TrEMBL record:
Residues 111-352 form the Peptidase M1 membrane alanine aminopeptidase domain. The active site is at 184 (proton acceptor). PANTHER family: AMINOPEPTIDASE Q, PROTEASE M1 ZINC METALLOPROTEASE. Its cofactor is Zn(2+). Keywords: Aminopeptidase, Glycoprotein, Hydrolase, Membrane, Metal-binding, Metalloprotease, Protease, Signal-anchor, Transmembrane, Transmembrane helix, Zinc. It is a single-pass type II membrane protein. This is Aminopeptidase Q.
Amino acid sequence: MLIASQLEPTYARTVYPCFDEPAMKATFNIRIVHDPSYVALSNMPAIDVSEMKDENGSLWTVTTFNTSLKMSTYLTAFVICDFDYVTRTERGNEIRIWARKEAVKNGYVDYALNITGPIFSFLEDLLNVSYPLPKTDLVALPDFGGGAMENWGLMIFQESSLMYLPSDKLTIRKTMIAIIVSHELGHQACEMLRHFFFLFKWFGNLVTMNWWNDLWLNEGLASYFEYLGATFVEPKLSLDKIFYDHVVQPVLKEDNEIGVRSLSESEDKIRGSFSLMYLFDSITYNKGASITWMLSGFLTEKLFIRALTSYLKEFSFSNANQDDLWTHIQMVVDAQDEVQLPASVKQIMDSWTCQNGFPVLTLNLTTGRISQEQFLNKKNENNTDSYNNTWIIPISWMRNGSSQPLMWLDKSSKVFPEMQVSESEYDWILLNVNLSGYYRVNYDQINLKRLACLLENDPKAIPAVSRFQLIDDVFALTQFGYIQIETALELTKYLAREDELVVWNVVLLNLVPENLESTLKNYEVYPLLKKYLLKRMLPIYHYYAGFIRQNVDALEGDYFAQVYLEKLFATACWLGLQDCLNLSSELYAKWMDNPEYKIPFLIRRTVCCYGVALGSDKEWNFAWEMYDHTDSTNEDKDILLAAMSCAKESWLLYRYLQYGLSDTLFSSNCTSVIILYVVTKDIGHRIAWEFVTENW
């Protein structure tokens, strides 16, 4: 038995009578009457444990907790469990991590314990604010809808976000990043230590937004800090690449529809139209973090942290809105003369938080003119209205490899004489260097040709994160009708010299989208794509295949190999690269000979899929036996569910779909997963459709 609470945003009122509003802060006295064989936890330390009898004479335990600090109702919390814990003290703050007894005994929460204290200290030192509670409990629940929740003094997590198996060597599991990188259809990597993120949220508990319309002040700021902290604890991580890949790029893909809301909406609009739960989305978290990153970039981190410290000190134990933050930043800007802004902090930042969407900058390098418009799909008829949103845009740029002073575009278009290029093909310009701004860039043909040429001669002349951005931008511009696909492909010619997986991943996501794998093979573009891509993929493929064959442990510290090698290998096999198919067959056969053998985790999904695809019913039946093993983890089970749909013989797929309907072989929630896996395969497409119609 287990009881735990999740009261954000508006569920405190279902537990006890209260004015359930974030601005109505109070202190709380909590007392819990519970079964004696369980322990009760709440925000504050227990100050008294006594016994009482009920009218039937049964004995109960009464746990009384110390009075809480002044806080919002949604942060009150309690857990009643029979868990065990590990503990250590950091600067007088007792940290306990609670989990199922066997998980604690096996050391699964030791890693979380080791990093929690240092993260608290890092934040205290950075922001010059001390953590106000005497204890912090982190509890790992077997199942928890929200992923995690930052209740003050009693943080609650899903087990997968807090547990790290000592036998599991992968950095991806340790990577402190609080992001969940989740792929299509529950293919999850790196849910580990999302708890990182929640440690960054105590300053949202200290200073809470006035109301939910400014939720991004809590979540966006915390999302930004989680990345600073991640690289503090794991210095090998490349902050800008991870931030662009996990935060900026995914939200740019979402924030470009007409109906998408702005970051900060008026209270009236939200009260009138939204469920509050809708506010807990990627606009709040990722766009909030992206514009915080941009703000810190043009202010300098030093000034930004100084302003934040002053904001936290003034509003501790009370509430604030975004204007309060702008005021504190303005005070810091006014007190120095190194950083000059083209307008007030409020004018600049409101253009990003109060308008929806984001701009695309169009360059004409013959004249040096840059113009801005909202980035919308030109292929969509509804988007023909002209939107006259303008933003005040910081432009970091480089010319021929050397960084230039920051420029500002504060109207719809403006001429920058410094940006006119000469006739020389070696004279090129790159904007939004290191993703310092939340926007896309549409270069003119002259500059794109020069950049394509530069990439073919010397790809490293452009920083990796800018190569990622450049390719991500041109494909997005193609998709939305700003440029032709040929223009985008010009920038991929150099790829044989690209050794960064994070850049390859964005290319493959655009050229081989996961949802098209089954249909793309039917078109005449497939052999052309195959020839074009394989020629360029060979160097990076062979580089990593060498590690897989000889020394896979050497990739333990390579974060991007752990996240993206799978996509590279899957694409190589899908394109029919013989070495990839052979490697998959070899490793799968090795596993069949010795079920104790572990296929390297980085490409396990691909190997299992092609092991089954290239084999007969013998290989399929082995996957089925392994799936049936009680001790395989959920992740392994999911890999095998997918692998069994890779069979190339129709009767095997049909039998698999029949198995999927059986209550004895699978739990009922697997039926739809099996159908979805089969439908994404080239021969499975038709079979799944026939099966669904027959068994409707």
